[in-house]
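Board notes (copied after class):
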Amino acid sequence: MKLFVSQEFAIMRLKGVVELREKRRPKMFLLNFPLLLVTSFVISLSCSSFAHADTLSAPETEVGGGVFEEQVHACELTEIHGMWCNCDSSAEDVKCNAWEYPLSENSPPWTAIGDLRTVVNLEFNSRPAGALKKFPPSSMFHKLDKLSIFDSKFSKFEVIPSYAFANSSSLSEIVLRNNMIRILEVNSFSNMENVKKINLDHNSIQEINREVFNNLPKLENLFFDSNEIFIIHDFAFKDLDRLTELGLKKNNLTVLAREVFTGLSSLLRLDLQENLIEFLGDHVFADMPNLYDVDLSGNQIRSISSSAFAGLKNLGRLSMQQNKIVTLDPPVFSHLTKIYHIDLKNNALETLTEALAEPIYHNLLQPGMQLLIEGNFDNAKSLNVLSCVLISWCVCKLTKIAS
């Protein structure tokens, strides 16, 4: 505890002593007066020194609901700072848990972590879930020039702000699963030259706007599974020409427009399972010529344009099980020269014609080819059925069965 002595108090005490000495030894007063002045001057200097030292002490810094005076190392953060971190021996792998303190942008934990220049893998958790209510300030990332993986989950922040990662040149993977993110601001993910994977699964995102993803020249994997997305704006992915996998499973998409996928020239896998899509229009996938795997299972698809899959010369797998497809126009498969797996299980198909199978007849002869049609034809009055005999995998011919 610091001892503060005011100048006035010291002088009052000194006067008392002098008065007492004056009463007891009045003849000595004049002799002691010079000593009194010197003593008074020394005490005055001492008081001033105390006051000056107090002004030079470490500035008080806000932490949760209290204050502390010294900046701590990130690996020494504890609950009283609103966050505690576990570090490995080299402080390269750091796992932090946020508690229910109102951490402001300038709170010491962010500064302490931002000074941890050795960190390679940085993970944030909220204990209890939802304790971290705002995304870490971008200033935290400024000096983390070795940071490769950033993972934050079980937090309650709703917005990823513009330039959230301070144009990091070292980040390769960003994982923001299981938070409560609703809004991605313009340039939320921008100017990160080495990031390869962004995972936003299990949040509450409702729309994907233009200009959210910019200047990400190495991004290969982007995931939005289990959100609430009902609209993706045209050209939202226009700069992601290195993307190979896009996950949009378990959202609320009802319509797909061709312009949504503009720019995805390298995409290999597109997962659209368990949305609310009802119709596939003309050339909807045409801007993704390298698509190899498209999964549309578990939607509400009733109708498919005969040119919906036009341009997909490299498509190998097409899954459309558990939809409401009644008929397929014969040209629908005519563009799929490399197809080897078509899953149409559990739809409402009434017919499967020879004209429909003809464009992929040679594919059907190949080992490993699968055409899955179980769970259809329940209400058919007139039925064309594929009769398959195993040779390698299957050789197909059409036989007509009249009701």
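Comment from the instructor: Residues 129 and 336 are 47 Å apart (CA to CA). The first helix runs from residue 7 to 24.
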